[in-house]
Amino acid sequence: MNRRQGEKDNGKNIILSCEKRKADDSEINKDLKKAKLETKALKAKRPGFTDDRYNETSYYMENGLRKVYPYYFTFTTFTKGRWVGEKILDVFAREFRAHPAAEYERCIRAGTLTVNYERVDPDYRLKHNDLLANVVHRHEVPVTSQPITLVHIDEDIVVVNKPASIPVHPCGRYRHNTVVFILAKEYNLKNLRTIHRLDRLTSGLLLFGRSPKKARQMEHQIRNRQVQKEYVCRVDGEFPDEEIECQEPIEVVSYKIGVCKVSPKGKDCSTVFKRLGFNQANNTSVVLCRPKTGRMHQIRVHLQYLGYPVVNDPLYNHPVFGPLRGKGGDTGGKTDEQLVRDLIAIHNAENWLGVDAADDDLLFSKPAPDDKVGEDDCDTGPASRESSPRLDSPAPGVTASTVMTPTLASPSSGAEAPAEESPRAPPSPTPLATLPINEDSNDAKSDKVTVATQTGCAETATSAAGAAEVIDPHCYECRVRYRDPRPRDLVMYLHAWKYKGPGWEYETELPQWASLDWDEPENS
Known about the structure:
The chain is of the alpha+beta class. It has helices at 2-44, 51-54, 88-95, 101-110, 179-187, 212-223, 298-306, 336-350, 360-363; strands spanning 59-62, 65-68, 71-78, 113-115, 131-138, 143-144, 149-153, 157-162, 193-194, 203-209, 228-236, 244-246, 250-254, 259-262, 271-279, 284-291, 402-404, 408-409, 448-450, 459-462, 468-471, 494-501, 504-507. Keywords: Isomerase, mRNA processing, Phosphoprotein, RNA-binding.
């Protein structure tokens, strides 16, 4: 009898235990659902690109460069899991160490660093789904003033010839000075879907879908290797006359800075090279490249491995890869960790290593992941995305003519690609980060003031272009004078020439540097 009673009691306990687990699971599911709804509501406050976004600033041309007037902008990011339960000041002091904790405390107290668009105390403890907003006086890097030319346009697709130096989409220190913004502002071509991507310094064919259906169709063709791509480049040395196919696997050395190398641990890939001509006078060759796969920096890494790097490749034709500059995979005995450290250290002096702020982590200056040195590469595969990502968004009520005060400045951020950062980048203890800084300000009488009424907080000046621009004395970059990038800083001798797929084919004119008898002009 006791045995039966015991079994019966055990059965009840099991049932109760199961019911308790179900109840607990139900509560967890409710919490998750609630969290998702809260996140959705907060995201709804971060609209994508609208005409207001396109009109928040304007361009001017100067010294052969397209420049953007500085403007106020709000970076946003959701609280990371590792931050939950910590004080907001402690998180910024630890995660973003370019500035002392006192700087961030003043930002928080002044209301330029907010949580869910509301002021908080420096001792506020972060919760799941908290949305951090950071107001900056945003300065963009100049790009070439060469126009983006239309190769083909119809109701389904837009094909352009992208000049070197212009990133495809917003990232790092580029937003208005990007292909998608220029097409929207100057050609009224909006809501385009990126089908593939080109590195910032790479010029040539760039395809956009005008509808999700067309973008998916083209993506599918690229993913299934139905698209034949031809690039032209200029390399150091006399490239062999015979056709060469390089099938060395490529590994990403660091996703944070986007550097690759040939490695047995890498992914299979193949590039066919054919010399088009050799210029003995400057010891360079013009080479046709046909990538059969689409790995990050595939053409450039394979050329480096073969010992014929692109003439002015600021990354893969650099002695940081050892005496042989990476030929045959020889990096001078450096480990991957040493190579990455050296790349970052050299960037401190030369400002060419980019960090892609393609995600909101970087917008709040995580020490680099996105202007990864090579997120957007000439050989990157399908990359369909809307040309209006939601990560760069204004806070509600903060428009081009409205800003919280004092402003958080955004010092050095990377460029989009592996190419050199423009000389505009100011020195910074952590050049791979976009770190918010501010000056002390105790006269913030209200949460928001308009630029037009910011007496004592901003002044206007006339640029060389003759237009007025806002100067913010609390902004680091407003206090620094930059020299313009040189022409050679704005180009890499790699050009996307022809793309051919099922029933379609597009090509561009070749750049001047692709002529066999071309020689780099002096003082370029």
